[in-house]
Design goal:
By secondary structure, the chain is mainly alpha-helical. It is about 80% helix and about 0% strand. The chain has four helices and no strands. Helix 1 runs antiparallel to helix 2 and helix 3 crosses helix 4.
Amino acid sequence: MSNPNTPGPTSTPQVTSEASEVTAQAKIAAGDVAQNAASDAKEQAESAKSSVADEVSDVASALRTAAEEMRSGSPQERTFGQIAEGLADASDAMRNKDLGEMVNDVSAFARKNPLVFLGGAVLIGFAATRLAKASGTQNQRATLHAPGTERHGDFS
């Protein structure tokens, strides 16, 4: 006689079926999580790309303004104007290309011109470091001189 608490021969296929179903559901859930993460990452990257394009456009605008204030026809005026146009074109290209195209373009440029690419990367790194230090100093000054903050002694 069989005990009602003892699994019979029909329960093994049922357990296997349930395990397969749970595994399938876990795979679907993992796929959904991965898809959501990829979508979120793409949105963040697009937002960052847009911000960088805006910053480049602002720099181009500032260079155009500086060029207009220089003596007409001077080498400096022409140089600033050319740099401004190049930056404006780069800003437009950033807005109009998706990230995959931009990565492919940068990779192709780096393969064709490795020294120029490395030099540009060093310059960008240097500029970013200077910008970060400058903004950190400004934030520190704003905190030190904010109303209600007192300094006792010299902590510099």
